[in-house]
Structure formats: structure tokens, C-alpha cells
UniProtKB/TrEMBL annotation:
It holds the Pfam family PAC2. Keywords: Proteasome. GO terms for cellular component: proteasome complex. InterPro entries: Proteasome_assmbl_chaperone_2, PSMG2_sf. SUPFAM superfamilies: Cgl1923-like. Residues 225-248 are annotated as: Disordered. This is 3-isopropylmalate dehydratase. It comes from the Archaea.
Length: 248
């Protein structure tokens, strides 16, 4: 049965209209890298698990820890009113629709503002990845207040993050999205750094140290490479933003 299993209920009363950062795997693994970094940097508490229709029925274990966990988990930091949705496995777009339905009542109950993260595949040299913001509802002015630019082309967000954003539009739930230029083939810690510093930081209003993310860039690339290869080999469409052109 679809449900959110809360493990740290004592944190629920400490959260006040929290912000949730979504980190499902997608192009460049930007959301995944950013979400993992937030969980590690703020030593976030394992708040809950998502048992929703369509999520792969696998059990996850971590290096140096024998305890098993479901692949989609929620982490909380009451001090910063922050939640992170973390996934260790790709989510099929049709499963993401079920995930959105599963998470929706919980979003509303805690008055959560979700921020969805996506990469847009771009070949680039040494240029800083460009970032822009999208969203729905009465929170769009927060993008302008944070100095986050608007899209410079017509496009769409597909895959599981696209399904979650589509659900927000359909039910009228306020939501924000951050889209950053990302390596189309390999994990992209630099794009994740940009989305944290130039996107998440001004939106949430507190500093997120990223020195460790930069220093460990090669290590992170190597660690996430296997997941990126699995996603490329999969027939399922992964999260990504892409231009669609005026006449497509």
C-alpha cells in the first residue's frame, strides 16, 4: 500500500512550512549529487521512507553499514526547515506519477514547498553552467527575488521530475524548479555546485558549504559513474530539461 513511513516523528512538530529539495537521478545526476551533498553536509536525520507504487522493489545498503533501507528516503533538518527527497535508483516516469500522488497529501499536511532539480544536456568547455528557474503557483516571485533568471528558450522537463512538476501544475500546488546546464554523458558535480550556490542558497536563505563537493569532484564522478551508466543503458526516460523549439 502506498504510504510514507515516518521514522523520526519528533521532528514533524519542529518543521515549519519546510522546503523540500528533490534529488531524483537525472541528466548529469545533478539532483542526486546536490541532494546527497545536503544530507551529508548538514548531517540530516533519516526522517522517513517512501513506499509508493512503481518504486523499484529493491533494498539498499551502504558501505560500512549492514542495515537495509528502501531506495527512496526522506531526510530532515529542523534547524533549517529543510527536507531532502533522496533516491538510490532511477524512477520510471510512470512510477513518478504514483510517487507524486503518494507524496501529495504529505506535502499538503506539512505545507511543504518543493524545489525540483533538473539538468539540461549541454556540451560546454570551461564556461560556468547556466542556470534558470521555473515554477507554478504564487511562489514565482521568489525566483526573481533570489536573482534567478528566466528560461532563454522554450522547453520541457521530462522523466520523473517532469511528472512531479506536472502533478504540481495539475493540483495547483506551488512548486519551484531549477534547471542547470549539465554534462549529457557523465556525472556533473560542477553543475550540482552551481545549482546549490546560485539556485538553492538564495532560495532557502542560508549558506551551503560546497568546498568538499569541489575538492572531491573526481571521487564523486567515479562514485556516481555506475548509476549514470545504468541510466544510459535503460530504456526508461530519465529526468531532464530539453528545448522543444517553436514549431516542434
Amino acid at each position: 500500500m502506498a504510504r510514507i513511513r515516518v521514522l523520526a516523528d519528533e521532528l514533524t512538530d519542529q518543521l515549519d512550512s519546510p522546503t523540500l529539495v528533490e534529488g531524483l537521478p537525472g541528466v548529469g545526476l545533478v539532483g542526486k549529487i546536490a541532494a546527497d551533498h545536503l544530507v551529508e553536509e548538514f548531517d540530516m536525520t533519516h526522517y522517513g521512507d517512501a513506499f509508493c507504487d512503481g518504486i523499484p522493489e529493491v533494498a539498499v545498503y551502504q558501505k560500512g553499514d549492514s542495515e537495509l533501507h528502501p531506495p527512496v528516503r526522506l531526510y530532515a533538518d529542523a534547524e533549517h526547515d529543510l527536507l531532502v527527497l533522496q533516491s538510490d535508483t532511477p524512477i520510471r516516469p510512470e512510477a513518478a506519477t504514483e510517487l507524486a500522488t503518494c507524496l501529495g497529501p504529505w506535502f499538503d499536511e506539512l505545507d511543504i514547498l518543493p524545489i525540483f532539480l533538473s539538468g539540461i544536456a549541454r556540451e560546454r568547455s570551461e564556461n560556468t553552467p547556466k542556470l534558470y528557474g521555473i515554477g507554478t503557483g504564487d511562489v514565482l516571485d521568489r525566483l526573481e527575488d533570489a536573482g534567478i533568471g528566466r528560461p532563454t528558450e522554450t522547453g520541457l522537463v521530462s522523466g520523473p521530475t517532469g511528472a512531479l512538476l506536472s502533478n504540481s501544475v495539475a493540483v495547483g500546488r506551488p512548486a519551484l524548479g531549477l534547471v542547470v546546464e549539465s554534462d549529457p554523458q557523465f556525472p556533473d558535480p560542477e553543475a550540482a555546485r552551481i545549482i546549490i550556490k546560485n539556485g538553492l542558497e538564495p532560495l532557502v536563505g542560508f549558506e551551503v558549504p560546497v568546498d568538499d563537493l569541489v575538492d572531491r569532484m573526481s571521487e564523486i564522478r567515479q562514485a556516481k559513474e555506475q548509476l549514470a551508466q545504468r541510466m544510459q543503458q535503460s530504456d526508461e526516460e530519465s529526468t531532464q530539461a530539453r528545448p522543444i523549439g517553436m514549431y516542434q
